[in-house]
């Protein structure tokens, strides 16, 4: 079950103004909403129960019971945390990114990253795929590897992805950047899976459907939404974390290459 803060971050761009207002009020004081029925919560926000349900489903929950449990769990976890000292907005922005990176630091992806990099080095080609804002993360990986003298292609439009699906190759590696694991990648994932190619998904949504089909998934922490003093939710650009991960892959690509050269007998 997704953490509420992470769910809001992952699906923030899909929210309407009313959805954001609902979650702003909940995140401002989540404890007061624990245990409420969907009808009581709708009354609090002066909206209909279906409006609450649509907002909840928009951030990935199957229904109100699942959301209710997630809210209770979030409040319990928050009560166990140390009190947060409010700083300037500048520090709040920096601290929010720092929180994301701290969560990322707790994960140990090294073995999986090395395996992916070995796939890349043993492949005939690598396609770095991203759509909309995550297209820049795909381009960042291409740029980072280009600086090492290796050139791969960034795929960042629906037309390119459709063509890529029609020309899937077993000896290629496909690296997909998607915060939510959008369905738009399904055609590509199905096509490359059918030919037996290696596929890698870099996402923030552990419940992404396409994650069940790819060769390997990296789920990055989603903690880039914070509540301002005026009570409004603001999301920092989650691509920052994707850019960092692109740089990590690039660094390992160089490191693994050096290791392989040293292992070759003179």
UniProtKB/TrEMBL annotation:
Residues 2-78 form the HTH rpiR-type domain. One of its GO terms (molecular function) is DNA-binding transcription factor activity. GO terms for biological process: carbohydrate derivative metabolic process. Gene3D superfamilies: Glucose-6-phosphate isomerase like protein, domain 1, Winged helix-like DNA-binding domain superfamily/Winged helix DNA-binding domain. It holds the Pfam family HTH_6. This is HTH rpiR-type domain-containing protein. It comes from Enterococcus gilvus ATCC BAA-350. The lineage of its organism: Bacteria, Bacillati, Bacillota, Bacilli, Lactobacillales.
